[in-house]
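This part of the workshop introduces the protein records we will be handling. An example says more than a description, so a record of this kind follows:
>
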Amino acid sequence: MRRARRVAAANGRPLRVMFADEARFGRMNRPQPCWAPAGVRPEVACQLIREYIYLYGAVSPTDGTCAFLILPASDTECFQIFLNSLARRFSRSYILLVIDGAGNHGSGELIIPGNVTLAFLPPYSPELNPQEHIWDEIRENLFQNYAAKSIDEVCDKLVHASLYIERNRKMVKSMTSFPYNHQFTMIRQWYER
């Protein structure tokens, strides 16, 4: 954290701390309980078609700013595309991007943009990443009991979901602003090792 602040100050840019992750969405769904009038059994579509697409996302808990990108896979090449997109979108800021330890995040083939520094969360601790709450919101409220007819329909639904999340900064801030995000004590310890 200190190093990122020093680099941001040296470049004359404000520091933006963001948490990033990717999530898989597809045509395989799990029926969830839903409301229905007494005496009526709800009909919910269910399918087991194994077609997937990935939604990459980054969130800044301090102001609720989000960035999303839909990509076909969870690999180093797609993560590189996401990093470049994020660096261009927030080109006036220096970004401390906090990510998990997935293999594609620490690949030696990654070229980190000049205005981005990566910091890694502790292993096996997805609960520390506020981006996970964004995935929960999308799955529970926008994809619940939804059976898509094609992967293009899933992609369209993800575009709608990401725009809904991006436009509701106040909601995003309430879902992702935890006390430790403001203090950054845990992240600072891992980053300065």
